[in-house]
Amino acid sequence: MEDPEGGAKPQLDGASAAGRKDGKKSRRRKGKRGGQSRNAAHPASHEHSGGAGQPARPMEDAAGNPARKRKRRRRGGHGVAQNGSPQPPVMEQAAAAEHAARSDGDSAPSRRNRRKHRGKRGLQGRPLTSAKPSSAPQQESRVEETARISVPRETQNGAAANRKGRQDGPVNPGFQGDRQAGDHAWPEELYAALDLGTNNCRLLIAQPTRPGQFRVVDAFSRIVRLGEGLAASGRLSDEAMERAIEALRICASKLRNREIRRMRLIATEACRQAVNGEEFLSRVVAETGLTLEIIDRETEARLAVSGCSSLVGRETRSVVLFDIGGGSSEIAVIRIGDNRFSRLANHITHWTSLPVGVVTLSERHGGHDVTPEAFEGMVREVEGMLGGFDCPEIEVAQTGDFHLIGTSGTVTTLAGVHLDLPRYDRRKVDGIWLSDDEVSAMQAKLLSWDFESRAANPCIGPDRADLVLAGCAILEAIRRRWPSPRMRVADRGLREGLLTDMMADDGVWRRQRNRRGQRAR
């Protein structure tokens, strides 16, 4: 069978070894070509390449012009008939003449296009029959799929899901927002994390992207003050439970409208302390279909660290991370040696959970009108709690080895006021560095404002105006215990830690790397 462009049909395994005496010589052995040209009409000018049965090379074309150097085409025969006997010289000359004529007939643009698309064609320039179809339509469909994720399956809560397009929520920290299609292995797989705290109810729905990162698909946050009055009565009030259940209904609706691969819904200090905490969670199941778990303080501290792991640089050797909540404050001391684990929480050496938060502290000392004396009283109370925390001093060898990380509404509020934002923008706040002097200046500024001035600030608002100074008092006690020249602000917390741990446990990033390796091969 003859090839369309001349010569015998190429073999499936590449260049033939026929015509080589030893069968071991490289197919790239072409001899010296300087000054040679290809002309089948002058066999006397042919210079044989040395091997028996190998065709001669034309020196000039039919017009007498030097032939253009071209890469040797690999043919099945290689100057040898299919029965193994050498081809007659006449057949060799005829094939060379046909090849030279075809070379003269090719235009320069066609030669350039052939070189450009050489990797997409077979040995003789023909499309490979076994080649995979073009991936352009697949890429286009994946982009469309990424832009519109619909999930019609019933969720874990048992209600029928409605088809809705994917809502792009705020892009979370260390979590990629803009990306190319195909950056993650399963664009349809979503994870959800809900954190019902003493002051807030928060939800995140996200999908894994690059290793260690994810993209937020939907988000929800509302101040519910579930722990209001808890310190005095030891119970969750009816009004507080109603506010929390109303927010949880919205979260349940968002979860029903999407296909969630895995979710984790947690409750923290308010439900831990309240006498009627379990009763409240049973009511949540009956009215919303959501089953929440009460986590202990150690788990809460580890989740806070997991959520902020991307904010700890490789040069850092020690970190004190704190999460000032509504009813409790978690503090983790992290020491990183030369070998850093993939999970930063594994580097926690000491941790504590203080039974005080912005809600409980402001209720005891008052948060509406706070004088410098009242503020100092709050600081001393927290310092007394920290005095019982047995933790060795942190040794700082050089600048940059140690810093604080704050993940709470208090530190994000300070950062927003420091930046003088017209409205709070987490993209400008998350990850920002504040020096020790800047933190002190912001605390003094807030302490000088009255309640109305704090409520009028767009980064505080009326919902936090009576809580922000209590949070500053907790922060001040932490700064006195662990002095640091700088502090990093994290607008993230337990939800991000939940998502990171679930994705890591499922191995989505590890399997994604394996799939990419297979595609590369």
UniProtKB/TrEMBL annotation:
Residues 211-504 form the Ppx/GppA phosphatase N-terminal domain. InterPro entries: ATPase_NBD (IPR043129), GppA/Ppx_hydrolase (IPR050273), Ppx_GppA_N (IPR003695). It holds the Pfam family Ppx-GppA. Residues 22-35, 67-77, 111-123 have a biased composition (Basic residues). Residues 1-182 are annotated as: Disordered. Residues 131-140 have a biased composition (Polar residues). This is Exopolyphosphatase.
